[in-house]
Amino acid sequence: MDCHNCNRSCHHAGRKHRRRFGFFWQKARKEICEEKLLKIALVGSPNVGKSMLFNALTGAYVTVSNYPGTTVEVARGKTVIHGQEYEVIDTPGMYSLLPITEEEKVARDLLLEEKPDIVVHVVDAKNLGRMLTLTYQLIEAGLPVLLAINMMDEAEQLGLIIDREKIEKELGIPVVTMAAAQNAGINELKERVAEYVKK
Ligand SMILES: Nc1nc2c(ncn2[C@@H]2O[C@H](COP(=O)(O)OP(=O)(O)OP(=O)(O)O)[C@@H](O)[C@H]2O)c(=O)[nH]1
Ligand SMILES: [Mg+2]
């Protein structure tokens, strides 16, 4: 049975509520399901650390399937932030919202069709300037974007200075710095995601 609010066959459409509401279950379920599975999509160029961030967020319960009609694999998992469950989608690498490769087309279609509650644009801190082009495209497309500047460990080794607050002001979206390979900045990212979806 699918839940009316979040369109999935889920635990809030399950036995617990049915037992509680008994005969009136069918009528009542629309009102009682306040919980909604929110979606986080991880997007960005190839090799920036999307899958590493995906693994850090989701842990063990992950499903991988081909995007319909393609050979491109999309991984989905779950994470919980402050008691709220989120589906996390690891999208194939994309350079632009105007797709050239099949991977880019899948990533673009996923964003348009799945309407994520938050789009985390993962970028490589060492190539920030070049990668911000996609950030602007995502913002212009009206998507709820959060910028995650990854590989800060390598950027720091190179002596690069990244002014997170300044970038945040200029872009007008939340910006976090992180090093997914070292599990650094993951909690900060989660906090900012929670803040963003609350608004
Ligand atoms: N030094 C460093 N390496 C990282 C970090 N995050 C990811 N990597 C490395 O970068 C490489 C690419 O990471 P992935 O997570 O596979 O990148 P991706 O964005 O999923 O790449 P595609 O799936 O090809 O689009 C791997 O070798 C990771 O170990 C980081 O914060 N610091
Ligand atoms: Mg990947």
From TrEMBL:
SUPFAM superfamilies: P-loop containing nucleoside triphosphate hydrolases
Alphabetized Pfam families for the sequence: FeoB_N
Cellular component aspect of the GO annotation: plasma membrane
InterPro entries: FeoB_GTPase, G_FEOB_dom, GTP-bd, P-loop_NTPase, Small_GTP-bd
CDD domains membership: FeoB (cd01879)
PROSITE patterns (UniProt xref): G_FEOB (PS51711)
Record's keyword terms, sorted: GTP-binding, Nucleotide-binding
Domain FeoB-type G: 37-199
One annotated GO molecular function: GTP binding
PANTHER family the UniProt entry points to: FE(2+) TRANSPORTER FEOB (PTHR43185:SF1), FERROUS IRON TRANSPORT PROTEIN B (PTHR43185)
Protein known as: FeoB-type G domain-containing protein
Species of the source: Carboxydothermus islandicus
